[in-house]
Specification:
The termini are far apart. The protein is mainly alpha-helical. The protein has five helices and no strands. Among the domains are: about 35 residues; about 60 residues, no CATH class. The radius of gyration is 42 Å and the shape is elongated. The longest helix has 30 residues.
Length: about 140
C-alpha cells in the first residue's frame, strides 16, 4: 500500500541559499565576463547602389517590350511573309492565292513537326523550315 504524504507535514523552508550580495554584483560580474563588442560603422550606400535594382528591372521591361514590338510587327503584316516567298518565284496575287499559300505552308509545318517527332530530333537542321521547304 502506498504511503500518503500530507502537505501540511512537509517543512516549509527553502533548501537553496544564495550567497550574500550576489544579486547586487550580478550585472557587473556578467558584463566583465563578456567579450568587448566592436561597434561597426554603418555602411554608406551611395545613390547608384540604391537605384541599381530598379534600373535593371526597368531595362528588362524595356527589353521585353521591344521584343514584343519587334515580333508583333514582324508577323503582323502577312504581305511581308508572302513577299519573301514570292521572291523565290511564287506568283501570289489574289487573296485566294495567299490563302492557298498559307494552307500549303501550314501543311508543310505540320509535316515537319511530325517528321521531327518521329525522328526524335536527331538532326538539328530539321528545325530550319526554309531548308526543308527548299528540298521539296
Amino acid at each position: 500500500m502506498e504511503k500518503i504524504i500530507r502537505l501540511d507535514t512537509i517543512k516549509k523552508t527553502d533548501p537553496f541559499k544564495v550567497p550574500e550580495g550576489y544579486f547586487e554584483s550580478f550585472v557587473t560580474d556578467i558584463m566583465s565576463k563578456l567579450p568587448e563588442r566592436l561597434v561597426e560603422k554603418p555602411k554608406v550606400i551611395n545613390l547608384w547602389e540604391r537605384i541599381k535594382p530598379w534600373v535593371y528591372m526597368a531595362a528588362v521591361f524595356v527589353g521585353v517590350a521591344l521584343m514584343v514590338n519587334f515580333f508583333e510587327k514582324k508577323h503582323s503584316n502577312p504581305q511581308d511573309i508572302v513577299s519573301v516567298y514570292a521572291s523565290d518565284g511564287l506568283k501570289l496575287h489574289s487573296s485566294n492565292d495567299i490563302e492557298d499559300f498559307y494552307r500549303y505552308y501550314e501543311d508543310e509545318l505540320t509535316k515537319i513537326a511530325y517528321d521531327d517527332a518521329m525522328a526524335g530530333f536527331e538532326d538539328d537542321d530539321t528545325a530550319n523550315i526554309d531548308n526543308h521547304l527548299s528540298e521539296k
